[in-house]
Every structure is written in structure tokens, then in C-alpha cells.
Specification:
homodimer, globular, 62% helix
Chain lengths: 506, 506
């Protein structure tokens, strides 16, 4: 068979696998948004079935045979040198995904999927009841599955390296710790400086805003940012997320707390950032293993760039404030855009990661990274987590949660075994500001455009420099291509220091 | 291997197939409710993939081997006589489903699924544009697929028999025509008598009712009828439907026309009737091929019993009217329950089947049955459909649609190849009134219960006499078991004549 026919066969298998993944994503999306409460049990069974079908199809002997015939091996994943660059990038990803997936036995995949469903349900209950002990056996089970997964795959130095690698290829404990340690020190120190200054006035946000009012504004907001609602939607879920159900079907969610209007606004902007990445994946790699972000960290660079660098900037609120006043008459009559800008940049240690400000956010992540590291090295026992959590919160943020629900039980990730995921959130901040440096150099009128709400040139730049690559490049390769640099904490720290020094008069 | 182990293996395959079917149902439900408009194309591809996976799994050699080892053959589908009755009923259904499904080549199944998606989209457009010619090639394609399907299966006398049998086992053209012909004559005659009498006053319904107001009332209504919202939900779609996504996840939809409040009320009651059937499938047959209604006709007997026999009765509105007045203050201050009862029973020929009254409804169905019969016998050419539609509307109902959108293009069924489905709707009316005769004989306080809104004894009776059987019995067997009778048009006609003679003073 000629190479073209072989590639076509491989693409067909890959396409089926992606269709199955996206069907599973719909099952998940519905679970988080509309599923009747008693429907959860069978939904878990549906998800486990799709996962096993995907595994069987993807790791079939046919996939292996096609990869080999195309010259793609573990040592030479890009295959035959005569193939077009796109196909060689494609083969590299397929080989890496195949090598990872085929090491897991089908029984293991199915058992893990089922246990994750049960564990997540137990977590929801335990968090509601503030009962860490009830969640403990499930957490241990999840750690056990994660450890086995890493052992199946093999890892550089530590078990935890194998898990980190899923979300951020080529970043292990050593690499991450070497950026997180200085980051922690400098953010902690800045947070202490800020604490000495008076807080901005946020009293105009202390009002109640009904879900209807918030929903109306958030719908306008997503359109204002340039989200084409023929290609996606905004719904409500307990935890905001973005999911891709099709090349033209990318959905985001938010939530409406009557006493915290900002929460919905910034989670909508954040998820729009993820959605723009997914919606800009080019036609030529759609429904293939390349149709995704370069890594979770790079994905997060997009969401946090929109949420913070754009969404929490003064030009942004100068542009958006009239729309806010129009959607919600009277409430903000005596407020100026600059006051609003200061209020949305309140920097103050708080208990919940997803509501944290830009300065303290990374500290929440670093705490979780250190705990995960300890769990997998054996230095921390699972039962000790609540007390170590409190101790680290005190040390890094100066506050201690009253309950485990506001502490170690707050995040969903561990409940479904996603260990190694958290660091991506902080890496996203770093990548984001490195990309942003280049973006601002290329688009000199950036601030004017943001004030006008004219985001098209920004969308174009992000698409042409970042999104269009999908998963063709590893995160480090992409960073190098766009900025010419290696990973660095400086652009992020400089941005934070400059912005907050001004706001707080430090 | 012993019989028990063989059965377990067969049940496991069946369970997987049902899980796949229900996953596909979610893809469909989402397509009709929340899918962004540009997501349709990939959604069709996802549906076609699931359909082919289902087909492959269900028609695997392993299924055939297990059925044979359990003694189930085409001639002796119930298998080994020593097995429990439930398992023998189960084997009968599995064998029938297997025999039907394995006759279809995988290529055919996949091609049909893809073509159906395209055809349905073309129909939506054609109906919007009132352009039958644009839909014609797709319709011909769908007829061609249906014809081939029937040829693959084999049929009693006519190609159309093979299609009718999918929805109503053991009912062919001859059996259906022999009840439809007298039904048509007697309903047409009654409709003429009614037309001579003055119409009831419906002026209080001419008001506009916003979607919010209607939605609020419909949510209350489903709970009033006894729908447990932990096991299902109500959403909005262009065409009301019920779908089962899990044993504890049965969803219904309705639609809100500001100028037709009754439309949403009666479609909600109708779909609740379907949902109650699905929700009452007993534990022991869940997620098996028995977990469904006996036939589409029997399913429709439940929806139309709730919608019409209960939902359009005087006791029902005497009970519900206070709730309606509470939900929608002031609008009905000067209206009495009896006036409302008369208004919801307006009998008057109209163009659209789903909005038709109880007297004329079956005439819409009989028209479609006659057209389908002609299409598959060759007596009617596809291009002649619009003109024959108009001629038959004139003959049976005395009115003619101005446009094809209100005529031959109004229903979705043909667009996705569901020929042979329509007759179930009329059969449902007949079954429903036969069942109802027994229900009223068993529950002497029926009218009191309905007035009080105490539906529990009615739910129990329907569950214990009809729903609990799932697909264990064929429609005729179920009818015999419940009523001791064969299919008859008399109970339905007697009910209609008695009710409408009173309302119209004939």
C-alpha cells in the first residue's frame, strides 16, 4: 500500500476515536449541566463504556501496524522523511499517544473510569458534608490508580513525573519546582506589601445581583468578546469549564452567585479564552489527534490572558463599562470605570483558588503541587492532607480555612484522579505573559483596540501565532517559535509588580 | 458452559448495546434542544458512528452463538424450555431483534444513518422555504433506503408490511386497513355533525401568553401529574418528544407559542404519558432489550390516554383549574372550569396533525397511511404527493392547505425514513380506550381521583397492568392479557361519540 493510503487509514481510525471522545464529552457536559440527579449512576456506566471502546479502537494492532509502515517508531516518531511536515508532526503525536495508551490494559482503563465516577460522586457528598474522612478511601483509591498509571507508562525520575507529563509534556518535578520556588517567594513578598495598603472601595459590588441579571450580562459579554454563538453556547454548572463537542460546538459554563457578580463575569471571560483556542483549530487538523491545545498550560495561558491581562485591564473596563450600565440600569450610576477597574483587581488572600486574585493565585497552585509531590514521594500520608493544607495556607497566604470544604476538599481534580494537572494553571500565567510580550510588540495599538472592544486583530494574532498549531508543537517548542525564549517567570512577575504597584501605590 | 453463564454473557452484550443506544439518544436530544446551529454536521457523524458500533456489537457472531447455545432459533425463539419465563421472553425478543438487525449489512446501516442526517437537515430547510421540490430527491432517497431495508428483512405480502412491522409487530397493511376504513367513515360523519353546531367560546384563550408564563405552568403541571423531576426533565424543542437516556433519566420536551397556550399544555401531558411508561419499566429488565414499550402503538396509547381521556376530561380541569389561576393570575377570573373544558375540546378540522382535536386526529393519520401505502405499492409517485395530499385533506377534513409547509412537509418522520410509523398514532387511540375500559372497571373512583389530582392509583394500575411488561408481550398479547379482547374500534368510537355529543348537544 502506498503512504497516502496508509495515512488515510490511520486518519480514519483517529477520526473515529475523536468522535468517540467528543461523544463522551457530551455525556460529561450533560452530567455537569442538565442531568437529573438520579441519572448519575447509569451515566458513569455510559462513560466507562465509551472509554473502553475508545481504548480498544485506538490501541488496536492496526494502529501499530500503520504507524510502523509509515516509519513511525518510538525512537523516530515522525516517521518517513519524505512525508509532508504536517503529516510528520501528526505521526509524532499519534505515536506518543499510542505508546502511552497501549501500555494500559483494557481492564485497568475500564476499572479506573468506573472508580472515577464513584469517587467524584463521593467527593460531591463529602464536600457538602465537610467530611474528609468519608472521601479518604476514594482519594486513596484514586492515588493508587494514578500511581499504577505512571508505573505502566514509565517516568523520568519520580512517579509524579509520569503524571505531570500528561498535562505538560517534558515538564517534571525538577523543572516545575525550579520555577515555582522563586515564584512563591516573590509573590508572597508582594502580597505582604499590598496588605499594608488600604483596600480599594468595592462597596458598589456588595449588592445582590439576580441570576437573570447576571445571565443577561454574561450573554452580552461573550458576544462582546467575539464568541460566535452559532459555534457554541454558555450554560450553568457548579464549576465553570470549557468543553469541545465538535469543531463547531465548543461550550462554556459559568455560575451565578447573587452576592458575587464578579465571579460569573471573570469565569465567562476565562472560559471564552479556552473556547477561542478550540474554535481556532484549523480545518486541516480537525477531528485528528492534533486538534487540541499544545498542553494544559498553554491552554491556560489563553484563558488567563483573556481573563486577567485583557479582562482585568483599565482599557477593557473603559470600553465595557457602558454596556454593563446599559444591561443593569441604575446600580452603577455613581461608579466610574476606574473605580470598577480597581475593584476587580482587589488583591487579598482568600481560601478558594478559583476566586483568587492574580497575585495570590499561583500560591494556591504551588501549595497543591507540593502536596501532590509529597503524596507520590510518600513524604505525605493521605490522612495528613487536611492539617498540612492548613499549615501551608497559613505560611503562604496567612489565612486558615475553618472547614475542609473550604480547604482540601474544594477542588474536583483529585476526586477523578487528575493528579499533576494543577501546575498547568500557574504555568499558564507564565506562558501567557511571555506570549503577551510578543503580542504587544506586534500590535502597537493594543490598548486602543481593547478600549474600543475591537478584538479582531487580537483574535487574529492569537490564531496565527498560537492556535493554528494545535498540538503540532510541544509547549516549549511553541514558546520558542513565538517568543524566541525559554520558560521564564520574569514577564509575569514584571507585569504583576507594575500593575499592582500602580493600583496600590507601592 | 452452563445456561446461567451463557445468559450472563448475552445480557452483557445486550447491556452494552442499550448503553450505546442511550448515548445516541443523548446526541439526538441535544441536537433537538441545545446544539449550536453549526454543530449539526459533526453531530450526524457521531450518530452514524454510534449506530455502526451498535450494529457491529449486536450482530457479532458471539450473539448468534449464545442464542443458539441457549436453544433460541428463528423457529423456536424462546429457547430452552427449562429456563425461567422471563428469560424465555427475553430470548424471544433478542432473537427477533437479532434476526432483523443481522440481515442489514454494516455498510448499509452506516450509509442510511448518514443520509438520514442530511435528509432531515434538507427537510428543515425545505419546510422553512415551502419548497417541496428541494426536499424531493432526499425523500426519494429515504424511500429507497426504506424499501431496501424491507427487502433485506423480508415481508408478509407487501414491501410496506415489512416497515409497519417495525413499529407495530404483526400488523400489516391488511390488518391496519381493516380497522382504518370503518374508523375513517365514522369519524368523518361525526365531524360533519359537529360542524353544524355552534363552536364553544374560546375567546379567553385568544390572549398572548409569554414563554415564561407557559414554562412556569408546564413545570407545575408535570409535577401535578406525578413526574419525579429527579428522574427526568422538561426542555424546549421545535417538535415535542420523549426520550430515554437512562433508567432514571427520561426527558420530555414541549414548545411555547405565545398565541397558543393549549399547545404546550397538551404536549406536556402527552409526553408525560410516554415518560410514565418508560419510568415504570421494572428493575429486572432495565438496560435490556425488554426495557421499552410493547410497540409504538401501545406507547401512544399511554400518551393519548393521559392527554385526552384524562387531560381533556371535565374532572381533570375541575381539579387543575385553581392551579392554572394561581400560576397565571387575573387572566381567567371570569372563566369557569366547565368553559375551559369545552374550549380544550373544540373539534374543528385543521391543517396540522399535532394540533388536531380528538375527533379529526385519526383522519390525519389515515391520510398518511394511505399515502405511504401508495408510495410503496407504486400507485403514487413521489412528485404527486403534494397534490394527492390536498385532495385527501379536502375529502376527509374539508380543508386544503395553502402551502406544502402546512401540508405534505409538516411532519419530520419521512425526512429520516420512518415510514410505517404514523399508523401507531391512531392505533394508540384504539388500544388506549380498550385499556381504559378495564382501568375504569377496576378503579371505580376514577373520576373522583382525577378531580382531586390524586393520580397515584392510576399510575399504579398502569404500571401493574401495562408498563411492567415492557417488551415481554407483543401488542396483541398485552391487549388480550389486560382486556381479554382483540383490537377493536368500538371503545374509542363510543368514547368519542358520547363525549362530543354531550359537549355539542348532538
Amino acid at each position: 500500500m502506498d503512504k497516502k493510503a496508509l495515512l488515510e487509514k490511520l486518519h480514519a481510525i483517529d477520526r473515529e476515536c475523536r468522535l468517540l471522545e467528543r461523544t463522551a464529552s457530551l455525556l460529561h457536559w450533560d452530567l455537569e449541566t442538565y442531568l437529573p440527579s438520579l441519572g448519575v449512576e447509569e451515566r458513569s456506566e455510559q462513560l466507562a463504556l465509551l472509554e473502553s471502546l475508545h481504548h480498544e479502537r485506538f490501541t488496536s494492532l492496526e494502529t501499530e501496524r500503520l504507524l510502523e509502515e509509515l516509519g513511525s517508531t518510538t525512537d523516530n516518531p515522525r516517521g518517513d522523511e519524505k512525508l509532508p511536515e504536517l503529516e510528520r508532526d501528526y505521526l509524532r503525536r499519534m505515536r506518543m499517544d499510542y505508546d502511552r495508551e497501549e501500555k494500559l490494559p483494557l481492564d485497568f482503563v475500564t476499572a479506573a473510569a468506573k472508580a472515577e465516577g464513584v469517587s467524584q460522586a463521593a467527593w460531591v457528598q463529602a464536600r457538602r458534608d465537610n467530611n474528609f474522612a468519608a472521601f479518604l478511601p476514594h482519594l486513596e483509591n484514586m492515588i493508587d490508580f494514578a500511581r499504577k498509571r505512571s508505573l505502566y507508562w514509565g517516568f523520568k525520575n519520580k512517579v509524579y513525573d509520569g503524571l505531570l507529563d500528561i498535562y505538560e509534556p517534558n515538564m517534571g518535578v525538577f523543572e516545575i519546582a525550579s520555577v515555582f520556588t522563586p515564584l512563591r517567594e516573590r509573590l508572597s513578598s508582594l502580597l505582604k506589601d499590598i496588605a499594608m495598603k488600604p483596600e480599594p472601595d468595592c462597596s458598589f459590588l456588595n449588592d445582590e445581583f439576580s441570576a437573570e441579571v447576571q445571565s443577561k450580562f454574561n450573554m452580552e459579554l461573550m458576544k462582546y468578546l467575539g464568541f460566535n454563538t452559532k459555534r457554541g453556547r454558555l450554560d450553568i454548572s457548579a464549576h465553570p469549564f470549557t468543553t469541545t463537542l465538535g469543531s463547531n460546538d465548543v461550550r462554556i459554563t459559568t455560575r451565578y452567585f447573587p452576592d458575587n457578580f464578579l465571579s460569573s463575569i471573570f469565569s465567562t471571560i476565562h472560559e471564552c479564552g479556552h473556547a477561542f483556542y478550540e474554535l481556532n483549530i484549523p480545518e486541516e487538523i480537525r477531528l485528528s489527534c492534533l486538534a487540541d491545545g499544545a498542553s494544559m498550560g498553554v491552554h491556560e495561558s489563553q484563558s488567563r490572558l483573556w481573563e486577567n491581562v485583557i479582562g482585568r485591564s483599565l482599557p477593557f473596563w473603559e470600553g465595557l463599562f457602558p454596556l454593563l450600565k446599559e444591561c443593569i440600569p441604575k446600580r452603577f450610576d455613581n461608579v466610574k470605570a476606574y473605580d470598577f477597574y480597581k475593584a476587580v483587581n482587589l488583591a487579598k488572600p482568600s481560601l478558594i483558588r478559583v476566586e483568587a486574585d492574580e497575585v495570590s493565585y499561583c500560591l494556591h497552585i504551588i501549595l497543591r503541587f507540593e502536596l501532590e509531590q509529597g503524596l507520590f514521594s510518600g513524604a505525605i500520608k493521605t490522612s495528613e492532607l487536611p492539617s498540612i493544607w492548613r499549615a501551608k495556607m497559613k505560611e503562604y497566604l496567612g489565612i486558615i480555612p475553618d472547614t475542609d470544604s473550604e480547604g482540601v476538599l474544594q477542588d474536583v481534580h483529585w476526586s477523578h484522579g487528575s493528579f499533576g494537572y494543577f501546575p498547568s494553571y500557574a504555568l499558564g500565567n507564565l506562558y501567557g505573559l511571555q506570549f503577551f510580550g510578543k503580542l504587544k510588540a506586534d500590535i502597537s495599538s493594543f490598548e486602543d483596540l481593547v478600549t474600543k472592544g475591537d478584538f479582531l486583530p487580537i483574535h487574529d494574532w492569537l490564531r496565527d501565532n498560537i492556535h493554528k498549531w494545535g498540538r503540532r508543537l510541544a509547549p516549549g517548542e511553541l514558546l520558542k517559535k513565538v517568543t524566541g525564549e525559554e520558560l521564564s517567570i520574569d514577564p509575569f512577575l514584571n507585569y504583576i509588580k507594575e500593575k499592582y504597584s500602580k493600583i496600590y501605590g507601592i
